[in-house]
């Protein structure tokens, strides 16, 4: 247990050192030690490791440190999800205006789903969907879409995760996932919270791989099962247009 704590503490310290470079481009070792509140010998060891891995470089003439090329390599591969979420906004607003309910985009992160973009309904009674919220995968229409269109190995890892709700009948759930793949959308009615309902459709990239789940949510009094079935073709067409927009 102590070993695990030590490992986390080491990572925290290394990250604190890297975060120094968000405020200025180069630092002396003594400046870093003072800034992060660590002994100089500890900072020296951390800097040596970061330099060896290419994250930090030391100017031998001034004995000052700056970010290394490895940071630039990492930045070149940063996900474009934030840009993508912005690109999808006009289509999401159009869908919101057409259906009158809150529209959200979800992506899977391990055993959770994250709301990466949302457009709130203009209705006085509406579903509030904060961007960045993390929600469990075991409930909700978008969760079912994210699981249904995932690789079977990914599905099994989700079902075996400690965060999965073990009271769910997996045989029935897998049958439901097959139906979702056949019909092209998923619904949920008061699954995660009372009085709420949602309809979700998959967004595929140009290679046919699942990119995200498009969701419309609102009060169950308005989003009845029949209403969601009526909205499904509109949702799927909107998701198709959004797939064409993927960077």
TrEMBL record:
Keywords: DNA-binding, Transcription, Transcription regulation. The keyword Transmembrane helix does not apply. It comes from the Bacteria. It holds the Pfam family IclR_C. Residues 8-69 form the HTH iclR-type domain. PROSITE patterns: HTH_ICLR, ICLR_ED. One of its GO terms (biological process) is negative regulation of DNA-templated transcription. One of its GO terms (molecular function) is DNA binding. Residues 70-247 form the IclR-ED domain. The keyword DNA-binding applies. May be an activator protein for the gylABX operon. This is Glycerol operon regulatory protein. It comes from Paenibacillus endophyticus. The lineage of its organism: Bacteria, Bacillati, Bacillota, Bacilli, Bacillales.
């Amino acid at each position: 247990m102590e070993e695990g704590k030590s490992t986390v503490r080491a990572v925290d310290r290394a990250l604190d050192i890297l975060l120094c470079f968000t405020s200025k481009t180069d630092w002396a070792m003594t400046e870093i030690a003072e800034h992060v509140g660590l002994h100089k010998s500890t900072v020296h060891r951390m800097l040596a490791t970061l330099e060896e891995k290419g994250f930090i470089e030391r100017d031998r003439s001034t004995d000052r440190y700056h970010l290394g090329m490895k940071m630039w390599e990492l930045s070149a591969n940063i996900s474009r999800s934030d840009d993508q979420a912005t690109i999808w906004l006009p289509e999401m607003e159009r869908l919101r205006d057409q259906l009158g309910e809150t529209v959200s985009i979800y992506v899977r992160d391990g055993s959770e789903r994250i709301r990466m973009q949302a457009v709130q309904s203009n209705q006085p009674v509406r579903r509030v969907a904060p961007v960045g919220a993390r929600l469990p995968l075991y409930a909700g229409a978008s969760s079912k879409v994210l699981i249904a269109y995932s690789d079977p190995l990914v599905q099994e890892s989700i079902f075996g995760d400690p965060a999965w709700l073990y009271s769910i009948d997996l045989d029935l759930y897998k049958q439901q996932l097959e139906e979702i793949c056949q019909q092209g959308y998923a619904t949920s009615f008061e699954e995660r919270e009372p009085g709420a309902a949602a309809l979700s459709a998959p967004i595929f990239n140009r290679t046919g791989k699942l990119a995200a789940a498009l969701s419309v949510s609102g009060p169950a009094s308005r989003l009845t099962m029949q209403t969601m079935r009526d909205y499904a073709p509109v949702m799927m067409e909107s998701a198709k247009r959004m797939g064409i927009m993927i960077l």
